[in-house]
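Troubleshooting log. The previous structure file for this entry was overwritten by mistake, so regenerating from the original sequence record. Sequence copied from the archived sheet and checked twice against the printout by T.R.
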Amino acid sequence: MSDYNAEDVRNIALVGHAGSGKTTLVEALLAATGVINVPGNVTKGTTVCDFDPMEKELQHSLDAAITSFTTSGKHINLIDTPGYPDFLGRSLSVLPAVETAALVINAQAGIESMTTRLMKAADNRHLCRLIIVNQIDAEHVDLAQVTEQIRETFGPECLPINLPADGGKRVVDCFFQPSGGPTDFSSVEEAHSRIIDQVVEVDEDLMALYLEQGQELQPEQLHAPFEAALREAHLMPICYVSAQTGAGIPELLEIMARLMPNPAEGNPPPFLKGEGAAMEPVRVSPDPALHAVAHVFKILNDPYRGKIGIFRVHQGRITPASQLFVGDARKPFKVNHLYRVHGNDLIEVDEGVPGDILAVTRVDDIHFDAVLHDSHDEDHFHLTTMECPIPLFGLAINTSKRGDEQKLTDALNKLRSEDPCFHIEHNAGANETVVRGLGEAHLKVVLRRLTEQFHIDVETRPPSIPYRETIMGQAEGHHRHKKQTGGAGQFGEVYLRVEPKARGTGFEFVDAVVGGAIPGNFIPSIEKGVRQVLEEGVVAGYPLQDIRVTVYDGKYHPVDSKDIAFATAGRKAFIDAVLKAQPVILEPIVKIRITAQDSAMGDLAGDLSSRRGRINGSESKSRGRVVIEGEVPLAELEGYDARLKSLTGGEGTYGIELSHYDPVPGNIQKQMMDAYQRSED
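Regenerated output below.
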């Protein structure tokens, strides 16, 4: 039996920009609660969460890591996440496992790019949020200014729940006690009053008691409204720590244990039941007496322990005797061994209760985002998927050694199973396999794992740009397919209409045939022919998008009409219509965010302009840095990493994400169409 229940569990993900000190903070918390004897060191490679050899070498996290500890009778599951934009997918994928996102901010750097992106992701997920300002004892830090920046960026709901004192050497609680000694800014009395005022606003009866009678409220009276304020994002507490010195660590542990929500107090996980348009919300309750329901949020492929599935229990109990279904599978697997995760270690346990984060090994069918359950009543359950950024950085990849092709395919599929932002594409037209990630560093890690973990040597080159085709006008197309080969012939005639749809809305096929001009059983064949052209393209060999195709008339023969005849007729009628409908080639336009020293601003702006890009804005940061935001065609970024290092003396960094597709300039379109025509000829 577990020595705690669901009410005692707290699930917290530490998220934030690289360099905010998340991994060091985990070490301080583990040491303070006796899990480890002394805190590990990132530089020395001795931390619990950065256990991968590459993490130790690079001295920053590449993947989310899980650990736990007990404090004040509460079991805290803590997830340490990477902070570099290239590994954003690894951070986002763990958010469905927690009730609370703790946003860690470097007091010296303030609000950085990943800080805002992760706060937005946590908000979209309706998670409760805690803001932790770390490194409060660093030199030249203005904590009052940092606090004001937090409130300006994320809203007035962000309020200090404790305050630093003695130049960041210690922290003074402002919630559980109404008064205290001197602090580095503000005062205990003011902070206490502001946070109590914020909490009671969600409870009218308590507000009346507080305002009308002037009664001092006890922490026990404030617990329920405090949780409600967290759930409604009406309150985002700010606390202060120095993970290096331990200042604020006892206060943070008290906040986690006494104020952060348990599984019943957080917003309920957004489960759905059904498929497609028939999906509807369903309530999953953290009740150990109900059927077991768990969600797999992380997959690892270990060379010795096999596939490891890490999951969060949302309902019911799971034991080594449990029989669990993976998704809608008809055959269950037996758990056999159940583990708690502590960094790179798996610790065997005999039970999991709602809120627990656990792991199973050697279950081949388990996969990322799977729902595990022990009853067919929960078939077709899904958890609303996190929206991950589209991976745009690409490399065409092939093996250096002939005969390793299948080995490479298997390794890539294992890596894809672990990472929601790592994609594999097979471009038949260019005869290339393309791997895509969120940045150069992301793909460098993938290539190193192929070499070091899977022992595969590969060659890479820049991939083809993912251009698209579409149309700008309306047109009609027609084709009669008639073929006589001695026996039964082939006959199908199709009239169709094409028209553009709004950018990004995809493809739509409409059957508007009346009077039986084309029997209904041939309509899917026409759509099949149309979809072949969608994939192959018409004017330059790129997939077509944002088009509505309406089949409105045609003819058939009672003997010679066949599926293949109507597929061919539909295909050629669609090509005919597209060529008349002002076809254009679209290129991906990406948002680019460049961070560099402000002295390089002019050179960077000029270089971006030469790449058909434009600057949308810039923002000065601390320590003489500037952040430039703009848009640029993806095709113009080949070799940009080397150019950026040249312009900034190796100090510049950048990240991109897909913004939209725009038509390529006319002269470039003509060149691409001519080249495609020559290759077809």
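The first helix runs from residue 22 to 32. Archived copy saved in two places this time.
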